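Good morning,

Attaching, inline, the backbone tokens for the sequence recovery test we're adding to the shared suite. The designed sequence is right after.
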């Protein structure tokens, strides 16, 4: 093995994958309730997305952002048409999108401090590590980028206490995914938005995990009837091809002029072809209605079959994001479920995280629930 040991890898080597099913090199099949950590919202090898990428593959793969790229404009138009954003910057990942948001917020306001939250997660670059409210992410890397402060999630008073004349922005997730699947309270988000307007502070919403249909809406912030000044996307946007996006209001356009930021591979034509197809599917009202119906079905099953188990302390859910809070470390549960043919994630030490593909069937939900019940009942 000549790879850095950056990941604690499970003993699973994928041979192929379709929809919500993965087949390993030994022919064993798994129901995938991790979706590549919330990436494959349309499942694996979605035929419409695959066809779009194959078409682009035969045209060209890369030129550079020094030239016009019409497909970037098409994807950007889909995002802005379906949101309150006006301009889009494309990059390759969620961390890069959040980096762009941090840079833009500082440049627009001329201020430096950005308020984020304890147990948040925004990436692993130096700026996004600094923005992340988890000390374990920052350990061993020396001094972080300065001027980040950390409020308590769902505690409006803690935000207000941190605001001063140097505050540029508040940056938050409407559901803290990596932090344990904690949805924000409506009153809290509304209060933060009001504080930002009152104090002329930008509101940045990190939609890396919650965007592109994951919560049953196009974007997670739609549940809260707010209009962020800046929001970021990645994961589900490309359905497996690397793409990120930073979206902002028109008033901030000129602050990101030539030379202010860039990305060699940002908006790559293959990634854009995938994103274009993804958005055409996910942004359909009928598709999102189906997601909400499946999320309700999953919630009913969790409440009936999983919530009563002795090892389960709480279940938190927003659309197709689920956190099952247990009374001890869930690492053995994740391993046992994998052995039985169900792929899940953890979120912190005691939370089993479910991020099924949005195209998952009720039969696949039933299968996953039964496997969860068997393993959790003996935990």
């Amino acid at each position: 093995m000549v790879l850095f040991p950056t990941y604690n890898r499970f003993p699973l080597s994928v041979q192929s994958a379709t929809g919500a099913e993965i087949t390993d090199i030994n022919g064993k099949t798994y129901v995938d309730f991790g979706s590549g950590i919330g990436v494959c919202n349309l499942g694996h090898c979605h035929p419409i997305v695959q066809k779009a990428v194959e078409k682009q593959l035969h045209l060209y793969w890369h030129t550079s952002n020094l030239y016009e790229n019409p497909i970037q404009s098409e994807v950007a138009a889909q995002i802005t048409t379906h949101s309150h954003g006006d301009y889009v910057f494309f990059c390759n990942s969620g961390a890069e999108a959040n980096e762009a948001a941090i840079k833009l917020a500082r440049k627009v306001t001329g201020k430096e401090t950005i308020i984020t939250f304890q147990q948040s997660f925004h990436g692993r670059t130096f700026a996004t590590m600094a923005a992340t409210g988890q000390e374990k992410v920052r350990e061993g890397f020396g001094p972080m980028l300065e001027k980040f402060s950390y409020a308590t999630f769902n505690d409006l008073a803690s935000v207000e206490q941190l605001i001063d004349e140097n505050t540029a922005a508040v940056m938050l997730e409407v559901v803290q995914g990596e932090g344990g699947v904690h949805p924000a309270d409506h009153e809290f988000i509304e209060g933060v938005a009001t504080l930002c307007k009152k104090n002329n502070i930008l509101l940045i919403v990190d939609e890396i995990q919650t965007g592109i249909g994951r919560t049953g809406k196009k974007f997670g912030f739609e549940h809260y009837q707010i209009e962020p000044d800046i929001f970021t996307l990645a994961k589900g946007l490309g359905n497996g091809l690397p793409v990120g996006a930073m979206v902002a209001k028109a008033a901030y356009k000129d602050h990101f002029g030539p030379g202010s930021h860039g990305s060699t591979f940002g908006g790559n034509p293959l990634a854009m072809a995938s994103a274009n197809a993804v958005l055409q599917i996910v942004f359909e009202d009928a598709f999102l209605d189906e997601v909400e119906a499946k999320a309700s079905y999953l919630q009913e099953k969790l409440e009936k079959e999983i919530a009563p188990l002795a090892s389960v302390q709480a279940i938190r859910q927003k659309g197709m994001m689920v956190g099952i809070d247990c009374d001890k470390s869930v690492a053995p549960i994740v391993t046992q479920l994998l052995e039985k043919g169900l792929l899940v994630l953890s979120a912190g030490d005691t939370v089993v995280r479910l991020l099924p593909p949005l195209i998952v069937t009720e039969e696949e939900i039933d299968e996953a629930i039964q496997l969860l019940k068997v393993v959790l009942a003996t935990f």
